[in-house]
Amino acid sequence: MFNKMILAGAVIMALAGTAQAADSVDLNVKGTLVNGSCTPSLENGGVVDFGHIPLGNLSKTETNSLGQKKIVLTITCDSEMPVAFDVKDNRSESMVDLTVNSAFYNGSNCTAGSNKFGLGKTAGNVNIGAYCVGINVPEATIDGTSGDVIYKNLGNAANDWSKTGDGSVRNFSPDDRYLTIADAGTVIPKAGKNFTFPLIVSAAIQGTDVLAITDNTNLDGSATISLVYI
Fold first, then answer.
1. N or C: which end of the chain has fewer CB within 10 A?
2. Side-chain-side CA neighbours of residue 102 (13 Å)
3. How many domains is the chain built from?
4. Nearest residue to 37 via CA among 83, 102, 1
5. Has residue 7 been placed in a domain?
6. Does residue 29 belong to any structural domain of this protein?
7. Range of the structural domain that residue 120 is part of
């Protein structure tokens, strides 16, 4: 009887100890205060212009590729620090899920909806098309030195940095994508003062029968590039 009472007491103490351990958890808030900040800039005032596109030269029923344009994103920092960028589509409601051919630096097509951005609407409220943005990976530099462009998708359970295959930029949906540069052969964001990311912008629009345009219509793509300090 004595042994049984001791055993019962030990069990109760063990249960009480377990309950007590689960009653609290520590919240640790961390970060690093750094001197300086970074500023992004785009050449040509941030405008990518596909020029005048004669409707008579376009297919009435098929997707019309508008080709590629290039623009350079530069990030300049007061002091060396690792920094990435992401992109949010300001015209996402107008995106048409078209295939944009030869959109990226390696010649691959842009097919995933998460890589496409909207081009605005016609006067008749018809969505015009889509464009895709990618980094010209071989020409990306940090402080004048080339490296590997790496990315992180926030929706990725592993949440790890990976080397990009095509340099594609994601449009903030379904989850954000950070892009930066690392030393060749590594996937660790590198600190620097001057980051250069040559961007390729490729566009496609719907057939003219669908667009039903009767007057001059402007392409109206708009996206916001934001910096992420990492």
1. N
2. 7
3. 1
4. 83
5. no
6. no
7. 37-48+55-229
Helices of type H across the chain: 2-21, 208-211
Q: Is residue 187 part of a domain?
A: yes
CB 224 within 8 A of CB 87: yes
Which residue's structure tokens are 């007057």?
Answer: 215
The residue written with tokens 């930029």 in the block is: 169
On whether the CB atoms of residues 200 and 70 are closer than 8 A, the answer is yes
Return the CATH number at 175: 2.60.40
Strands 148-153 and 145-146: unpaired
In a domain, 184, yes or no: yes
What confidence tens digit (pLDDT) does each residue in 190-218 have? Answer: 999 999 999 999 999 999 999 999 899 99
Paired tokens of 14: 């063990």
| pTM for this predicted structure | 0.84
pLDDT in tens, 74-118: 999 999 999 999 999 999 999 999 999 999 999 999 999 999 999
pLDDT of residue 122: 96
Q: What sign for the dihedral angle of Cα 33, 74, 68, 56? A: positive
Q: How far apart are CA 64 and CA 45, in angstroms?
A: 27
Q: Which two tokens stand for residue 206?
A: 């719907």
